[in-house]
Amino acid sequence: MTQHPKNISDEEFVAFQNGDSRVFRIIFDNYQATLCRFAYSICKDEGIAQDAVQESFVKLHQNRSKIGGPEAIYPMLFVITKRYLLRVFRRSVVEAKYRDELRNNWNEGCTSTLDELKANDLRSVLEELVDQLPDKQKEIFQLNKLAGYSYEEISDQMGTSKNTVKNQVITASKKIRLHLHRLYHFVFLIFFLGQ
Fold first, then answer.
1. For 32, which of 41, 54, 58, 89 is 20 to 30 Å away at the CA?
2. Could you please report the per-residue DSSP string of 43-111?
């Protein structure tokens, strides 16, 4: 990590710690591009890189009162970005195991998926992805895929049409699959580029 000079004055730093958005914008402008390049060089995925940098600035703002001085800003952003990428990598390894498990054991009639996930300690991965769905879509997906209810049973229970239920399940499944695909792509790149 190269040494970065403090790009704000001591007065601006105090204003930043007090929540001054103008100074936060200066900090963001100073480091955002550098952090994005660093994150992209690690993960080779622009979306993940941007998420990592965004997370680092959110945490910087949340912990601004704990920063020792202007010269500590960049190291803190750098470490948060690295930790975010490490979490993504670890999660992607777990999701790769989950995908292998699904490939070997999943079929549309399977109602024991939740039990399989518990047994393989992979339930948390699915729950995290499902939690990111909109509320109604999440409820329908959980009733169908995790609790084993049919489209018709869900339709009766929620007072909506069977086609709406089916469309919600299909849309949720596509979103989850797309997210898993992005993470597996990330694992693939790290595995082969890291050798």
1. 89
2. H--HHHHHHHHHHHHHHHHHTGGG---GGGHHHHHHHHHHHHHHHHHHHHHHHHHHHHHHHHH--TT--
